[in-house]
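Data availability (excerpt). The following record was deposited with the supplementary files.
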Amino acid sequence: MEDTEIRGESVDIVIDWQEPASLATIYANQMSVTRAAGEFFIRFYELRAPVLVEKEQIKKFKAEKKLAAVCVARLVVPSGSIEAMIRALQDVVAKTADVQYK
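Predicted structure:
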């Protein structure tokens, strides 16, 4: 049996993007990004506005002066992929900037 050298050859492939039915869709309206060697850490949060009805609730909220932002997803993205992902987001925003959703 002869070994075949295939280094340097390229193969075209098609990516089959799959989303399992069990994958949850989670709302996020805040995010934070940090970086370590070779990776970006992206955390998505949901910040809920409080419903303040009673005077005591309003008083307590004014005294605390803070809201909880709950982390709903945490991603690790390789440094080599982050720029393409940012460009993809910018492209979608630019293409849909004039679209109004009802």
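Summary of structural features: The helical segments are 55-64, 79-95.
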